[in-house]
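Practice problem: predict the structure.
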Amino acid sequence: MPTLSENNSPLIIGHRGASALAPENTMAAFDLAIEAGADGIEFDVHLTRDGVPVVIHDDTLLRTGGMSRHISEMSLSELSGIDVGSWFQLNRRKGIFSGQTIPTLTGLLRWAAAKSTFVYLEMKSGPNQREVLAEAVAESLEHFALKDRVIIESFDLDAIKIVKALTPNIKTAALFEPSVLTPPGFRTRRLLGLAADAQANELALHHRLVNERLAARAKAEGFKVVVWTVDDPKWINKARELEIAALITNNPALLVAQRNTVTG
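Answer:
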């Protein structure tokens, strides 16, 4: 398992895999992220109608599967054959990833268990589904020796609390985006308070929220800081200056190359 050192600081995490180069949240994207030297992957989880956690960002198939049906309204068997790769275009070429399907959480965790990789798992749930999703995620993790390299994250901080209650030793991250934290003068105090109340171990911050004061306060209060979603290689130096633990990126190869150049 990768550990944070001078040579791989900050950690590079593939956002929905290498989603700049392959259709997001597919095995093609996850494989490309690891091949590029990423230290881990980030992905999203929804529940099917029959209660199976699957890896997809949106709550419908409209954008990636070409149909408007909701994930929560479909069974695993209905979802399993849907092509979520043909929509993706790379260098003006479409269809080169046709046949990619939606992974199950269990299948992806099995893949991750065979590799030395961090896993950032974002739970996608509304208030009526947070507990059942948390239970399904916790149950899936029981089958694999991954708890020391899995971080469960969510914008729904109540969901984070439920995960902590179910699996006290699991690491969690509180997700924050700019729109929920205003005015800026109170941002640091409020953000850290919310994360502490959720018993989170890490802050997963949109890059526009990051500043020197927040990074320093977070470290002082025992939080690791993770920043999303950044594709500019200049973030490597900034992350080192601010002691940011990890960068989540659509194009891991770019940031890994810059990290290697800076380290070398």
